[in-house]
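Researcher: Next entry in the queue.
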Amino acid sequence: MVGGVCQSVVDGRSQSGATGIFRVASADARLRARPYGGRMGELIPLFPLGTPLFPGTVLPLHIFEPRYRRLMRDLLNLPDAGDQRFFGVVAIRQGWEVERVAPAEALYDIGCTARVQAVRPQADGGFRIVTVGGERFRLLDVVVADDPPYLQGEVEWLTEEEAAEEAAGDADGLLVPGATDGTPHCDEGLDDVVHSVARASLEVLVRGVRELFTRYVAEVSDLGSGGGHHGGEPTVDAETAVLLDAVSDDPAELSYLVASAALLTTEDRQALLAESAARRRLALEARLLRRELTLLQTLGAVPVPLHQFAAPMTVN
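Model: Structure for this entry, 316 residues:
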């Protein structure tokens, strides 16, 4: 639970009131090495949910629907020593039941794999599992079949932009004395200057997002407990503080923690998931956190996720 806000997900339906904490797994647990060599057209099982999954975020699931029980049996039949025990989590774009509309239209096109870390079979044939977000992917096509009964997706694997590539991008438009066409001269020290400026600006951005997120969590926690933040230094619970310290040195992990824990709309979270550079993701989060803080302080209430208003569709 971060700031008194938590969610559990049961077979694709988010439910509030569960216990637990939004966590970001370590780099080793996240299995960032992509096992498919970047090939396009990989066919993977899909698990639609009401909200996106982010790399490194721990996601417990209770599997009870027959089709997803079949998915788990299929995964458990794969070699234990391999890295194939995963499925793709994709958020639902419209409605709350994918079957009522064409799946390709109902699902967002950017998702994240959920790698199975622990499985506990249940007496009724279901499963309780723990997964962790792995690699991002773009959904190219959705395959619907009778066997297997669950959806499958043809995906293209997405990469995270490296810091060097981001820094190189920051050099665009940089004017150097003597340049006549707007293109910098080749200069031995230019790359070092650009990288130094990029690193420094990223550090400032990381500190800013951490401070905004700390204020946001404190505000949500105070409002959720019926109190109110009465000035002074914002504080968070000890568990959240430890978590923030654990990811503060990794801009990507910090960005994914903020994206998964903040009470944002699905559209906002999808925009963050689709962003391939930690710098741009953090910059967007800074804007979103300022917006959310303004709303919290103005309205004095914690927003309710839209899925809580969902009701089964009827012919009426």
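Model: The chain has eight helices and eight strands.
Researcher: Noted, moving on.
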